[in-house]
Amino acid sequence: MEWALAYLALGAFVGLFSGMFGIGGGAILVPVLLILFNMQDFPTPYIMHLALGTSMATILFTSLASMRKHHQHGAVNWAVVRTITPGILFGAALGALCAASVSPRGLGIFFALFMYFAAIQILFELRPQASRQLPGVAGMTLTGTFTGWISSLVSIGGGTIVVPFLIWCNVPLRNAIGTSAAIGFPVAIGGTTGYIVSGLSFHMLPSPNLGFVYLPTLFWIALASVMTAPLGAKAAHRMKIGLLRKLFAVLMLVLATHLLIKFI
């Protein structure tokens, strides 16, 4: 209970930005959870996996709340969601299972480098030109598998990959963000399942837990994030959020740098 306020504040912040930008929140959750888990003396060999698994599980709740609000604004392309979901589920589960065999140092460095990529993408508004149409079932399945795999390894909802991909395929930005928010749910299902299964054989994890998902943290973050994610989604349709996106990207760079220094 003594950590509840910290987790509630973290969940509220992450939920707000998840709703605004169609991301899962792992870019902020994972580095901050590493700090909080270290302060609680969680076992060092598993601390990165616990942060990734717990963060991924929170996306289950954040994405549902965000998706509902984007759907109300007519911003979710459900045909895209249905077509890409099988690949997303497979790729996300595979990514989580792969993460269990990677060292905390390797995961930390990969996470930090991916956050640099995502932050630079936001800061310089590096969006592809709309130059093609959405691919067929095979192309969407391959895209979903790759998206799910990467998203699970770094515990994000997939927006960093899905939004540019949809824009490239002539989907308007508003719909790309809304659709990405909906795709975050199957990413979270596959990824959470993988982190639970891969962590079941480890017996030194803090309890109560489900594999690499630490349940008290999940509860408090989910409780706050489901309340603020709809507010973020609503703001995305009513506000100019360009400056907020850039400030968010700067925060990502700071946290990624902290991680890189820690693991190198």
Q: Report how far apart the termini are.
A: 33 Å
Mean pLDDT equals 89
Structural class: mainly alpha
The strand count comes to 2
Q: How much helix is in the residues?
A: over 70%
Strand order of the largest sheet: 1-2
* Element pattern in H and E: HHHHHHHHEEHH
Name the quaternary structure.
single chain
Radius of gyration: 17 Å
Discrete helix count = 10
What is the global morphology?
globular
The major beta sheet can be summarized as: 2 strands, antiparallel
What would your notes on this structure say?
The chain starts with a helix and ends with a helix. It is built from 10 helices and 2 strands, in the order H-H-H-H-H-H-H-H-E-E-H-H. It is an all-alpha fold and 264 residues long. Strand 1 (209-210) and strand 2 (213-214) form a beta hairpin. The model has no long low-confidence stretch (mean pLDDT 89).
Sequence-ordered SSE layout with sheet pairings:
Elements: H1 4-21, H2 26-39, H3 47-72, H4 78-99, H5 104-123, H6 137-154, H7 159-168, H8 173-199, E1 209-210, E2 213-214, H9 215-236, H10 242-263
Antiparallel strand pairs: 1-2
Helix pairs in contact: 1-3, 1-9, 2-3, 2-10, 3-8, 3-9, 4-6, 4-8, 5-10, 6-8, 7-8
How would you summarize what this structure contains?
With 264 residues, the chain is mainly α. Helices cover 75% and strands 2% of the residues. It is built from ten helices and two strands; from the N terminus they run ααααααααββαα.
What attributes does this structure have?
single chain, 264 residues, mainly alpha, two-stranded antiparallel ribbon, 10 helices, 75% helix
